[in-house]
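To: structure subgroup
Subject: Chain for Friday's discussion

All,

I'm putting the inputs and outputs inline so they're searchable in the archive.
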Amino acid sequence: METTSNIKKYLKGKNIPLYKFLESIGKSNGYLNSTKNFSLETLEDIIKLYPDLNIEWLLTGEGSMLKDGPITVVDSSPEDIRLKDEVKSLKDELKESYKEIGRLEGENNLLREQLRLGDRKNEKSA
């Protein structure tokens, strides 16, 4: 139960609405009140999405609430993170496609030039 209480303290200190936090970790309203223990998957989501939160403090109440260093809270759900990874992958694929298009255009230009030379040669022979 301490973890739930600590989550609420963290959210209050960071002015993060409870519903927004629950949405970001893929949980429904009432989750904090109905759970006694967080799953490993849920804790991993919290750590990824709220990197300034000290996990030791979250679980035990010991130490500082926030890690040392710059404080940043990622305002993204796990679905947003998955989509960002997918978009990055698609961008990389698109870059490779552009390179291939450039290579093929160069090859086409070379073949066109060879055809023109062949046509000229045929015209001279005729």
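Points worth raising on Friday:
The chain is about 70% helix and 0% strand.
The CA atoms of residues 86 and 92 lie 10 Å apart.

D.
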